[in-house]
Design brief:
- Helix content is about 50%, strand content about 20%.
- By secondary structure, the protein is α/β, with parallel strands linked by helices.
- A seven-stranded mixed beta sheet has the order 4-3-2-1-5-6-7.
- About 40% of the residues are buried.
Length: about 220
């Protein structure tokens, strides 16, 4: 039995859930239709290029959580799951999760997308363990700020190390599945790194290092 770690966006899902949530908010008329869309697209491009300013992105991404009531956010998220997430859960991703589950492996999703968006997705996928960006909550409402270290790039490794300590788990025989070169810090420390429908940069590195390359979309 080993630890099986999965990136979420463009790995288990065929979309980026953070970007899709932004699009959903635009459709609801919940954010400025011009400025928010421009920022959402720009930050997505920066992420793909490996140049994302995470602090600036989170300032934008977490503001709608602070601007709306928990009740409204919950209602929106239920709609979001139906309209954006469910159609983009990859059947082969669910099969991969099931294979690791059958082996008795511990399943963990680690994502740079915030927990408000991703916790219901992890639950839907039947994955009990989730490391995500934690939005700060005070007096029952989101503040628009981040709590702790964002699980992005090297931050994924830092957060994982703390999780391993808390869970009394080890990295022995661990797997990590990801599509993105942003996840190289974590891919480099697992015994079984797997590039899943990788971006061009990760594909070249995976070929050079003879990492497994697979698709969940074929």
């Amino acid at each position: 039995m080993s630890l099986a770690i999965f990136d979420l966006d463009n790995t288990l899902l065929s979309i980026d859930s953070d970007h899709a949530w932004g699009e959903f908010l635009l459709e609801q008329g919940a954010v400025d239709p011009v400025a928010y869309r421009e920022a959402n697209e720009r930050f997505m491009a920066d992420y793909n290029a490996g140049t994302l300013d995470m602090a600036a992105f989170l300032e934008m991404a977490l503001k709608p959580l602070a601007d709306n009531s928990p009740e409204q956010l919950s209602a929106w998220h239920q709609q979001f799951m139906v309209s954006k997430i469910e159609p983009n859960i990859l059947p082969k991703a669910e099969e991969l999760l099931a294979r690791h589950r059958t082996k008795g492996d511990t399943l963990l999703i680690i994502t740079a997308t915030n927990r408000f968006i991703t916790a219901p997705i992890a639950e839907r996928l039947g994955v009990d363990h989730l490391i995500a960006v934690n939005p700060e909550v005070k007096n029952g409402r989101y503040t628009g700020r981040v709590s702790g270290i964002p699980s992005y790039r090297e931050g994924k490794v830092t957060r994982l190390e703390k999780w391993l300590e808390d869970q009394d788990q080890t990295m022995e025989g661990a797997w990590f599945y990801s599509d993105s070169h942003n996840d190289l810090p974590l891919l480099e420390i697992v015994e079984h790194p797997v590039a899943v429908d990788p971006d061009d940069t990760l594909r070249e590195i995976a070929k050079e290092r003879q990492w497994r390359i697979m698709s969940l979309r074929d």
